[in-house]
Amino acid sequence: MTETPVAAEPEIDVRQVDRIVQGFWDRDVRAWNRHWAPIFRRFARDLVSDARLSRGKIVLDIGTGTGLAALEAARHIGPGGLVLALDRSRPMIKFAESAANKSRVKNVMFFEMNADHMLFPDELFDVALSNCGIAYTTFPAAVAEAYHVLRKGGTFVLNDWHLKDVQAHRVFGGILQQHRTNHPSKKLREERTAMATFESTGSRYSDLNEVVMELQRAGFTETRTKYRTYRIQLRGVQEFLAMRLERAALRRELRELPRAKRRIMLDELRRGLKPFLRKGRFIFDWKVAYVSARKPN
What we know:
This protein has helices spanning 14-26, 29-51, 68-77, 90-103, 139-149, 167-179, 186-203, 208-218, 237-245, 248-255, 259-272; strands at residues 58-62, 82-87, 108-112, 125-131, 150-160, 221-234, 277-278, 281-294. With 297 residues, the chain is of the alpha/beta class. The radius of gyration is 19 Å and the shape is globular. It starts with 13 loop residues before the first helix and ends with a strand.
């Protein structure tokens, strides 16, 4: 999943990019669960539907976050099956474990683990899932790992989205770009550079052909792709702004804007996003790509 587009900055080491982006994710648990999870739960349901899970299967959820796809899959496979879900964010894993306990879902286990270095035996899983959960910086390695831990004949299903496919996010990012400070701190410059590099890496996978090629390089066959477009309805512009501005990647941008300029930017955002208002609701379409593949027998 991508965040706010920013202007090109000098490149930094991909490991540093990964560390900064991961730090955002670690700090995003509350904002994610409040504003984003209700939308991504819809994505998770369709992802699990595409996987065609049956009772008793062993399922892997890669980049589980707060556990949306893992919990959905656990309900499909029944008590005789098992879901193992991984994420490298300890705060996200703790939240997912709490959600599972509250839902009384017993057949799921969560692991703090990197997707590009899985500590599972080869050919353990019947199905692997990822609900917008694989980082662009480690995408090839994570796909290769998924191939190794899947049984022969196993299925891998994943989805993803990009800013250019969601008009409301494009409008938001364009206005932010115009108003952000021209005198960022060293820390903010570093964060902007990391996000610009992350976006540049992610743009490679905005073409589904590249995703398919990566799957085929790993050894997968029978790849299928499709798009689903979701109609999103929020309570108003303010809910959309909260959804975007409460994310960790933008908090420093806001803090470093003088109060008067921040007010001007927020006014411009409300005006720019007004076309998405219909009868008091903030409505926009969200395009998501879905891909499935199979490990040969």
